[in-house]
Amino acid sequence: MLSVVIPAFNEQEMVPAAAEQIDGVLLRAGIPHELIFIDDGSRDATWAEIRAESERRDTVRGVHFSRNFRKEAAIFAGLQAADGDCVAVIDCDLQHPPEKLVEMYRLWEQGVEVVEGVKTDRGEESLAHRVAAKTFYRLISEATHIDMTRASDFKLLDRKAVNVLLSMREKRAFFRALSSWIGFRTAEVPYEVRERAAGESKWSTWLLIKYALSNITAFTSLPLHLITGCGAASFLAALIVGIVSIVRLAMGRVVTGLTGAVILLLFLSGLIMVGLGIIGYYLGNIYMEIQDRPRFIVSETCGVRKKS
């Protein structure tokens, strides 16, 4: 059986459409399945729509969070709730084409354990959004040594891969990177990002930047190494300036350049503050981990659970 995890946050307009389209595609393909909607603490009628779909369709189940825990938590809640031999993750806004699930499932039947949905087109995005996304994926790709420039949360995982992900106890797990990092036999399915049929995107450029910072510091120590590199470069620059000053003094020349000294001081001070900020971000992550709070809290469920 295929379990399809569908995170939803304030998606009351899209829940019925997502249930109808995904359910229809899989039924026509003859694929036994269940749809698991995860309501990430929505403030609209998303949960009411999920409950209505669970009563209308025996393939639909729902999990409702006590509050908003963000998308990563919703994905892992779905993985935990899934009973299928393989599990797919797809966005509720249908920007991920549901018919690609059939192609992913067929690859899984052939023995592929991780099927990655890769973007051939990012759809309509602002310039700032594109630049931020490009920088973020370049950093993550360097950290994982895996090309993630076209990566997405749209993918299908074998039960073996799902169990490995669920065994990871880290609270700030980055699903998109971890599902690639774990390895296993992998294949790719290209797709074009579709436009929303209804509703508005919940991701502003600022939220995406915060999301990127959180996941970069959760997954890689690269920013800490960048601080070390900047510190070494600053030390080298200061050493060169010091040697030049000593040579000028030895030659009897007056050493001037108060403006240059002030600029260097301001640069180093700024570098130190940025370095402390990055270190503080990592300390914050460590603090969150040692508190050992749950990734999410489920307040309600709906639908009939059926074993594969």
Main sheet: strands, sense, barrel:
8 strands, mixed
The strands making up the biggest β-sheet line up spatially as 7-5-6-4-1-2-3-8
Shape label = elongated
Got a strand count? 8
Structural class: alpha/beta
Q: Number of helical runs?
A: 10
Mean pLDDT: 79
Features:
51% helix; eight-stranded mixed sheet; 308 residues; alpha/beta
Model description:
The protein has 308 residues and is of the alpha/beta class. It has helices at residues 15-28, 46-56, 71-81, 100-109, 127-144, 159-167, 175-181, 205-219, 222-250, 258-291; strands at residues 2-8, 33-39, 60-65, 86-89, 114-121, 155-158, 186-192, 298-302. It has an 8-stranded mixed beta sheet, with helices on both faces. Helix 9 packs antiparallel against helix 10 (258-291). The longest helix is centred in the C-terminal third of the chain and has 34 residues, at 258-291. The mean pLDDT is 79.
